[in-house]
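Request:
You are asked to prepare a plain-text protein record giving the amino acid sequence and the backbone structure tokens, at your earliest convenience.
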Amino acid sequence: MRKLFSFPNPVNEKAARVVAGVVLLEVIVTLATGWYWLLIPLTYGFWARVLTGPTLSPLGWIAQNLIAPSLGEKKLVPGPPKRFAQGMGTVMSTTALVLAFAVSHTAADVVLILFLPAAGLESIFGYCVGCRIFGLLMRVGVVPQRVCEQCADLSLRWNTPQVRAS
């Protein structure tokens, strides 16, 4: 059971970018069409990824096992910042889902609009907003350094070019 509820460390950034690209498309389609039922698989995906990595997320599994390998050599990054970013997506997608079906579509749209820069920057440029927030929280002491030793130790970044902190 413990293995089921684990998150990979390190993470293949190429798989993370594929997932972010699909999230971006799903949010754009939801905003453009008003198909708020799409928030159900979006929210499920975030919950599945934050709790189990790609194990119970069809999108995560496909991205990691089918799409990312076809994009060339893995680009490994620390897992804890990516899990934090998935957690942010979980909170945002759950909020949008509840708002869409219990409050108003306009309120849900406001939350969905926040996905556009986050998912767009990750998928297009490899810039993870959640990872940057995670790093900031580490620097100010909210997240203990032991959570991601690799993120805190600059020498690891210089000695291991394939693994970089986000």
In short: The radius of gyration is 16 Å. The beta strands are 11-12, 76-77. The chain has eight helices and two strands.
